[in-house]
């Protein structure tokens, strides 16, 4: 596990990106997109999981313009949540998308990369995975319980590469009407596959978290693994 410094395309500075390499290369790359808690223990564990599957994992610090290297614990009390929501509310998503595009470009050029890149995001990152599917040239995208996607469905025709969506039926941040709108909005789309996981809440795939559900997470992660292998080699 190491860190890669990437130049922001708007010239305002550089941001740190967690980098975890697999045992063998060349390999496809996966850009992991953080929750609202920064590049924390959960994102480090996910990066190691992706590398264990045989991919180069990169996890950029998207909150760097507000506070570099945010590392919050969602199970450590209300103060951590309040700080996380403040950072989310101050996050410029357009610039965040630019930073993700820069990370995708850096991933393609990494020694050991086979040139193929996917994105995979959780919560806020799940929303940004939708945005990378719309606005970048990455080969594939995975969105875990992305928030606010129902407000961006008009962009669905711009999705040109495969997008896999994992939706939690009991997600308190994505209520039933939002889920219905998302499912209707992507129905029949040749590049989008959406799965709903019954009886589970937001963040069901965060191992050890309060909403962790082993069955749903195992099914979702298995689908993700097959998807990444299919599209990234």
UniProtKB/TrEMBL annotation:
> Does Hydrolase show up as a keyword for this record?
yes
Keywords (alphabetical) are: Hydrolase
Which Enzyme Commission number(s) are on file for it?
A: 3.1.1.45
Q: Which InterPro entries match?
A: AB_hydrolase_fold, Dienelactn_hydro, Dienelactone_hydrolase-like
A Pfam family that this protein carries is DLH
PANTHER family hit by this protein: ALPHA_BETA-HYDROLASES SUPERFAMILY PROTEIN, CARBOXYMETHYLENEBUTENOLIDASE-RELATED
Q: What is this protein called?
A: Carboxymethylenebutenolidase
């Amino acid at each position: 596990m190491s860190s890669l410094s990437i130049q922001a395309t708007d010239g305002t500075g550089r941001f740190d990106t967690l980098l975890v390499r697999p045992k063998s290369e060349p390999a496809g790359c996966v850009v992991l997109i953080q929750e609202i808690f920064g590049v924390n223990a959960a994102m480090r564990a996910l990066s190691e999981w992706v590398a264990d599957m045989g991919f180069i994992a990169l996890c950029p610090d998207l909150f760097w313009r507000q506070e570099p290297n945010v590392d919050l614990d969602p199970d450590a009390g209300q103060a951590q949540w309040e700080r996380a929501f403040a950072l989310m509310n101050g996050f410029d998503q357009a610039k965040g998308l630019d930073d993700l595009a820069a990370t995708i470009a850096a991933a393609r050029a990494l020694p050991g990369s086979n040139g193929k890149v996917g994105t995979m995001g959780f919560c806020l990152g799940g929303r940004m995975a939708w945005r990378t599917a719309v606005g970048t040239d990455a080969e594939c995208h995975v969105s875990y319980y992305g928030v606010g996607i129902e407000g961006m469905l008009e962009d669905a025709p711009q999705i040109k590469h495969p997008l896999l969506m994992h939706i939690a039926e009991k997600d308190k941040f994505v209520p039933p009407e939002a889920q219905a709108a998302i499912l209707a909005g992507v129905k029949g789309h040749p590049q989008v596959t959406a799965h709903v996981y019954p009886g589970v809440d937001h963040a069901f795939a965060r191992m050890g978290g309060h909403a962790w559900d082993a069955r749903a997470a195992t099914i979702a992660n298995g689908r993700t693994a097959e998807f990444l292998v299919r599209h990234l080699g």
